[in-house]
Amino acid sequence: MSEIQNTADVVVIGGGVIGMAVARALTLRSAGRVLLIERGSLGRESSYAAAGMLAPQAEADRADEFFNLCSRSRDMYPAFAGALAAETGIDIELDTSGTLYLAFNEHDQEELAHRYDWQTNSGLSVEKLEGDAVRRLEPCLSAEVRAALRFPRDIQVENRRLLSALAVSNEKLGVRLLSGTTVESLRLEHGRVVGVETSGGFFSTPTVVMAGGAWTTFITSTDPATPGVRIEPVRGQMVCLEAHPRLAEHVIYSPRGYIVPRRDGRLLAGSTTEHAGFDKRTTAAGVSSILSHALEISPLIAGLPLVDSWAGLRPRAADNLPVLGASNEARGLVFATGHYRNGILLAPLTGELIASLIVDNVVSPFMQSFGPERLTATELC
Ligand code: GLY
After folding, report:
1. What is the rounded CA–CA span in Å between residue 150 and residue 300?
2. Fewer beta carbons within 10 angstroms: which end of the chain, N or C?
3. What value does the mean pLDDT take over residues 354-369?
4. Residue with CA at minimum distance from ligand 1 atom 5
């Protein structure tokens, strides 16, 4: 390998949605030669397994820094989708029909009432619907639905098309994409990153972005005194059915599960939350629980063909929050990992935040609470 080939200004470890969004944002900001290293194939782990829901309001119980981060990233999606379409010709199928959250019993209704109250008090768009009104909107819904909230700004994206668009965009921008290559360790000298040791040899670089998702913990440094960030895999199984014509327009949640209607008639249903190590197989119990929750939402699902199922490994830090920011222990190391349930949602903003940190040395107020230092003394729960 020539010296030019094994040197980069920034090495991004991980070719999921976060790694690719970061590599693209860095290149758009003229960060120099960016090399992205992926152990498997680009965009084939948890980002591929996701459902593409961009729904911070449907999932949040309060307005905190995490909610602000998620909402801000969601609101970047229309421009992000437009830019990717212009760069690559790929339509990432941003669907702005909105999201419904259903209540089936008193407990669910209390949860909805709380969400409605804090969101209306915060000036957010949310609509309250009685059972009949929500069934008029989505006739597939169960007769048992008592009430619902509609979040018009919570939307969805076709995450697999997003991954293809990001890969093509990076390629066109001149990012070097190295798949099938495992980063074994970071090489440090005097507390500073000088490169990465990989299954394909050594690459020298002054700056490494760790976007390794569930595999983050495996990438150690040559200095054993440098504590890493511990990320654990949390399995989420998914089921794919098919409905022609489409069963619903909205993304639809209950407190127990969700369904996501795709433009082409696929209907995704999810998910499980399991501690199964790195085992990505689906199980009879997982698929059965997903289907029972989907059937609660719409009994019509019983007649749909089941066409696929899969599982992904959500990358979870001890406090469920993403890890964004520079390491205090290893100069030149920046974390963009641990996005847990929100990798697709947080990709556009994570790219921007990490690129401004590296190129302009700016720590955005959006990322201040998510630095890696909060985790060094914390054990996984
Ligand atoms: N973001 C949806 C899930 O993790 O199931």
Report:
1. 21
2. C
3. 97
4. 271
